[in-house]
Amino acid sequence: MINLVKEKNPMPEQDPMVRNKNFKEVSTGYTADMAINEAMRCLQCRKKPCTGGCPVRVRIPEFIARIAAGEFEEAYQVISTTSSLPAICGRVCPQENQCEGRCVQGLKGEPVAIGRLERFAADWHREHGSGEAAAQADSNGRKVAVVGSGPAGLACAGDLIAKGYGVTVYESLHKEGGVLAYGIPEFRLPKDIVSSEVSALKDRGVCFINNAVVGMSMTVDELFEDGFEAVFVGTGAGLPQFMNIPGENLLGVYSANEYLTRINLMKAYKPEYDTPIQISRKVAVIGGGNVAMDAARCAKRMGAEEVHIVYRRSMEEIPARQEEIHHAIEEGIHFQLLTNPVAIRGTEKGYVCGLECVEMELGEPDASGRRRPVEKKDSNFVLEVDAVIMAIGTRLNKLILETTENLSANSRGGIGAEEETGATSCPGVFAGGDAVTGAATVILAMGAGKNAADSIDRYLEKRV
Ligand SMILES: Cc1cc2nc3c(=O)[nH]c(=O)nc-3n(C[C@H](O)[C@H](O)[C@H](O)COP(=O)(O)OP(=O)(O)OC[C@H]3O[C@@H](n4cnc5c(N)ncnc54)[C@H](O)[C@@H]3O)c2cc1C
Ligand code: SF4
């Protein structure tokens, strides 16, 4: 029987004024009854527009039907035929622009809560599943190297091991997961979930070599000399950008990546860890994307009394997910909109003491289609802060491009690769994820990793 309620079942969450002082997960997840009730909102459309909106083509109506029938493990099994990271995607995918954005229920009310149901099925499996490894092909004796253990690398490794290849993942950091481990905070994506997905790959035979910077410890060409027959490059786009304004070298200025890495990966929020990080009273975060929201909400949880998001356009243009903005506002983050920093002010000892800004107004649309922010004359003012976090985007680190013979870049400065196959200008080298597209999303990175696994398989079969 279909549930005719127009709104999604609300997600149980920690109280905002409690959660803004701890790093525990904000949303606690549907109960079994809530999940069944929500699953019964699905119309089981024959044309499945929701699945068309998913970059890895999760069989959405099928897994939802299993949840509606109370068959939760079966629901997980349906999802895992196409996605290797459902507990992660269920939490952080921008569903509003993908599957849920196309859901027929969304035409007259709220779409089916596909992401929350995906998370429910994955969490159910983690807590109640048999723990058995997925079936895979016998070893074919051929080796493929994956560079980078973010969602692109993990998805590629998972699909290759399932096809019988020996897979070794090289990761420059001491921990696997890429942005999932060092960027997205614990309160949105608990790290034990990332670890359990990585452990599942290890159980299936994927070998991880950490603290190995390809392009420095060894080159891509040397990987071929070591017997790897193909290499997938999924190195992300983790190089921070700054504004080039005066004062960016002061103590208390961070890139969002560095700030989040110290908190997430180096566990700065745990008293038993000696992670060096400045404890700040008033913090300005520059930018309006998900990264800015994460940095601001982390600063609040680290004890800052006041945290400001400083963004040069208005709330209508802000790029972060609506859910993250809503959570940030609930947690007491201030939004300093139509505001642009022009200088960071410091004390005699070199510590940040203020952020000089100008007010902005919106002019005609620019190349991105968004209205161009224009500075208001003589509108300078100073925001009193003791830390400034730059979250204005990241770029690709060029190490692999510079150390791999004949590897070409694309017009965005990333690695040049075909969208459908991940093939690059070098035979046997494939690339995907943020390293190719620039900063994007987890599910697009996974889709690229999976496409590359398929084309690596086709490429190596031809070379037999
Ligand atoms: C703070 C933050 C929040 C985000 N929130 C969301 C969200 O809510 N939803 C969403 O969908 N997306 C979000 N994103 C974007 C998303 O995380 C990325 O698009 C995605 O992780 C890209 O995956 P990837 O595998 O291409 O790269 P990454 O996740 O960046 O992984 C690349 C890996 O390669 C390693 N590496 C780099 N160079 C080398 C080398 N030379 N040798 C060996 N290893 C190397 C890096 O250490 C890293 O582990 C967020 C990003 C950030 C920074
Ligand atoms: S579009 Fe929405 S209602 Fe239709 S099958 Fe997909 S989830 Fe169900």
Automatic annotation (TrEMBL):
Residues 143-449 form the FAD/NAD(P)-binding domain. It comes from the Bacteria. Gene3D superfamilies: Alpha-helical ferredoxin, FAD/NAD(P)-binding domain. GO terms for molecular function: glutamate synthase (NADPH) activity; iron-sulfur cluster binding. Keywords: Oxidoreductase. Residues 19-129 form the Dihydroprymidine dehydrogenase domain. InterPro entries: DPD_II, FAD/NAD-bd_sf, FAD/NAD-binding_dom, Helical_ferredxn, SudA-like. Its EC number is 1.4.1.13. PANTHER family: GLUTAMATE SYNTHASE [NADPH] SMALL CHAIN, GLUTAMATE SYNTHASE [NADPH] SMALL CHAIN-RELATED. This is NADPH-dependent glutamate synthase.
